[in-house]
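User: Can you recover a sequence for this backbone? Please restate the input before giving your answer.

Assistant: Of course. Working from this structure:
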């Protein structure tokens, strides 16, 4: 086995992914800064929301954003040493969407009726849980041949999720923002979200199992 040198490690680093993170990180910092300035203006602490050296937000106020940035950067470093050849576009996209979700939760939480100042924190916790699940899946399912041999099970599960979604939609309260929501203890779950996962697994497994037929001249 070839010995890893510092130069080879640098070449194997996921630089494309790190570069794609720059824009989401800047968006997070700017959005959080503007949100904190708007809150300060509303509270009468500063006269204007224009950014200046006198009304820069504190590091404590930027903790949610800095937490997201640190987590995503840590995942980038980890993947560079463990899965350097994996796709380098998906994680920045997921990070951007997740960060926007946290920003929106931080923005609307205090303005809900009744107010929910902890909404942004809970959203951030779910992002952390999602990243942890991503890493567990990545390292725990290195061999996924069994998915290819059980694609029909995922199709059945998808049909079940569709049935649950339709059933809940017909009986749901029309005033509710989510008509297909299932309440399982303290958790609120939408079957349609699981349907997306099952659909991706089914299509990928089916195509992988029948790749020879699709690659034929008659296709």
């Amino acid at each position: 086995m070839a010995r890893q040198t510092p130069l080879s490690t640098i070449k194997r680093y996921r630089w494309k992914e790190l570069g794609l993170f720059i824009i989401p990180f800047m968006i997070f910092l700017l959005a959080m800064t503007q949100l904190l300035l708007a809150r300060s203006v509303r509270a009468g602490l500063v006269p204007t929301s224009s950014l200046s050296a006198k009304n820069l937000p504190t590091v404590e106020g930027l903790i949610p954003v800095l937490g997201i940035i640190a987590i995503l950067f840590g995942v980038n470093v980890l993947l560079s040493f463990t899965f350097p050849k994996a796709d380098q576009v998906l994680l920045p996209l997921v990070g951007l969407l997740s960060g926007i979700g946290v920003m929106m939760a931080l923005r609307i939480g205090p303005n809900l009726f009744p107010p929910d100042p902890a909404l942004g924190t809970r959203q951030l916790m779910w992002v952390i849980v999602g990243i942890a699940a991503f890493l567990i899946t990545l390292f725990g399912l290195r061999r996924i041949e069994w998915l290819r041999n059980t694609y029909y099970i995922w199709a059945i599960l998808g049909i079940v999720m569709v049935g649950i979604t339709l059933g809940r939609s017909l009986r749901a309260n029309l005033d509710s923002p989510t008509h297909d929501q299932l309440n399982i203890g303290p958790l609120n779950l939408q079957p349609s979200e699981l349907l997306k996962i099952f659909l991706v697994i089914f299509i990928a497994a089916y195509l992988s199992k029948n790749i020879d037929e699709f690659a034929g001249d008659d296709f």
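That completes the design. The radius of gyration is 22 Å.
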